[in-house]
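User: Can you help me understand a structure? I only have the sequence.
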Amino acid sequence: MEPDPRFLGLEPRFWANVRSISQHCGYQRRGSGVVKSIGVEDMIGAMRDLGLTDAHLIVARTPTDLARRLASYFEYRAAVLNEHVRGLLMKADEAEAMFDRLRSDAPASLAYAMNKQKGEKRAPAYFSAIIKILVSREMGGLDCDFDPQELTTFTDHAQPIRTLARRVDGAFPSPVNPIALWEIKEYYYTTTFGSRIADGVYESLLDGTELDEMRRTEGVSCHHYFMVDAVDTWWSTGGRPYLCRVIDMMHMGLVDEALFGREVEARLPVLASAWVELLRRREERNG
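Assistant: Let's start by predicting it. Here is the structure, written out as tokens:
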């Protein structure tokens, strides 16, 4: 899914309020199984409880423009997760069925990474495999690294200008001067939302922060995507607050798009085709 233009390009103070208010008020209604919106009165209460001023949120009993925009964002975030994202996330058997269907038309030579499970749960990493099939279809024989074993590096006249702090899950066409990078988080068999899964969100935030700094300082851009699946993990076992953070991260400009579950089948071919065109244009510029 693409970010809502209403909430792009907002100042860091807006996101400071989003985080402070969210962590104090909570991200979900207890026992309801849904992400909650946060109204102006709750925002004001959060500021007072935290020992902070509410003067930026209300003046003469009237909500400020900032307060109204925050309320609109919280309403949007709850709606897009409850009404859209929740229905896109798949269970393991649904992901397996999609993989089997797509694999039937994929080249037999295409190899797939296995998940880290044992016994009868040992199988291809379905979501990663689905992504590989969908992207490969658009490459037209071009290189694409679906398992970079090195840090991503951007260069100027063959000299590194930025090297990201961590490895990513995919890079087109390679981890050296890529046009697109992506992170994949699929957790079909976990029973709790643990710190390892939460760390995946913060790792992508780090990548996005480094890419944003490079864009602003060096004028060099790279598309950055975050792709997640597993409804039981991301929705049912405590992952909803982290889905909120993913939506925040996307609107902060640290991720170009977040793709959820079955959404990749329609959206990834469009994105991958655009990457190929960008590579063609870059090669033409470089002679």
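Now, to help you interpret it: The chain has two domains: 5-88, 92-285. The longest helix spans residues 65-88. Let me know which part you'd like to focus on.
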